[in-house]
Amino acid sequence: xxxxxxxxxxxxxxxxxxxxxxxxxxxxxxxxxxxxxxxxxxxxxxxxxxxxxxxxxxxxxxxxxxxxxxxxxxxxxxxxxxxxxxxxxxxxxxxxxxxxxxxxxxxxxxxxxxxxxxxxxxxxxxxxxxxxxxxxxxxxxxxxxxxxxxxxxxxxxxxxxxxxxxxxxxxxxxxxxxxxxxxxxxxxxxxxxxxxxxxxxxxxxxxxxxxxxxxxxxxxxxxxxxxxxxxxxxxxxxxxxxxxxxxxxxxxxxxxxxxxxxxxxxxxxxxxxxxxxxxxxxxxxxxxxxxxxxxxxxxxxxxxxxxxxxxxxxxxxxxxxxxxxxxxxxxxxxxxxxxxxxxxxxxxxxxxxxxxxxxxxxxxxxxxxxxxxxxxxxxxxxxxxxxxxxxxxxxxxxxxxxxxxxxxxxxxxxxxxxxxxxxxxxxxxxxxxxxxxxxxxxxxxxxxxxxxxxxxxxxxxxxxxxxxxxxxxxxx
Length: 476
Ligand code: G3H
Hints:
Bound molecules: glyceraldehyde-3-phosphate
Distance between the termini: 57 Å
Largest sheet: 7 strands, mixed
Strand order of the largest sheet: 12-13-14-11-10-16-17
Shape: globular
Number of helices: 16
Pfam families: Aldedh (PF00171)
Keywords: Oxidoreductase
Mean pLDDT: 96
Domain Aldehyde dehydrogenase: 32-467
Oligomer: single chain
Enzyme class: oxidoreductase
Radius of gyration: 24 Å
Protein name: Glyceraldehyde-3-phosphate dehydrogenase (NADP+)
């Protein structure tokens, strides 16, 4: 990137070791911007939107689509570079980095197709009560998009692209990790759209303060923690005028019933809890198991964890990779220590590693409500297991939870499983039966209740989030 201002060093969670000396691996440099650059980005987005009268919001849908198609074609050309940087910068296993990249291209292509359908519907004239009406989808204004570090490409573009397609202008703030991998993508965005339509900010969260305080952004699209979302929303002088599209904290539980098929259950819990080292918002973060099946489940999970490959993200077949920083390792260790001090046991044997940022997955049994890991979202490879005797125990957990994204039920007795479905559909936004929690397919609505989400992100819903229905009516 051409940038004449201050730069910051970017390190990978991978460490190098020389005897007893560990050093973080320097992988590149990125611009550092302050609040004044945030203000410049805002002004550019506001100018390009021009109260809905700018070139971009008034452009024909087909022409906006052409810009996005040019971008996505060029994006495909930087696949190797982005995948390599993603693997290095956030330590996502290389094969999973490839999946994230390819899924993002599919998401954009599918969103374009969904917009063509939506646009066809919008151009129809309806006649009702003697009124001829065209119900259009109109843009909302400048949008602030902030993606997370764990899906930096996918979840940044999953909000940005629908926002642009609907005629909004945007400011993108890159996540705290993932700046390097996003640099080539952001460069393409700036080249493929008219001036001022996409404005990119590298920097920490402080740079968005003037943007929100100005009251001039119409939508905050943020994927990250619930507490950060609250703080961001509060900066806007008229929060009721700020539409929020949010993907936030979750503590998705699994309920393992007496009738569970243990092969399926253990397989799904392993990948559901430990995929990308537990750093998925959709991860299974607490497991309730009927006491009669607990020993069997623990034995399967122990065996599964022992078979996981702990190593570097470029290693073929690796499962558990370095975590983002020593602070995260200390946090996970504190969660485990707290649980053990209060009576839980670590069921699996741990191992020492040559890199301080690696964390041996910990399977905890006998977890109770007094332990931090019962409530806190660990976002790492810690699997807390709670035995239950009475079906009301897991149900009560979800009812009392502050979160309501998804859950999983494992059981092969249809009547037993059915007893959980209806009450849980009213608590979370996706009930998975005999399978882990997950976002895909991307045409499914992806949202949550309580502190877990606001708005719905999916291929079609994304377009609706960043637009409003506007009626042109004429009396016949
Ligand atoms: O971190 C949250 C992601 O949206 C999870 O996506 O369920 O496809 O892994 P996923």
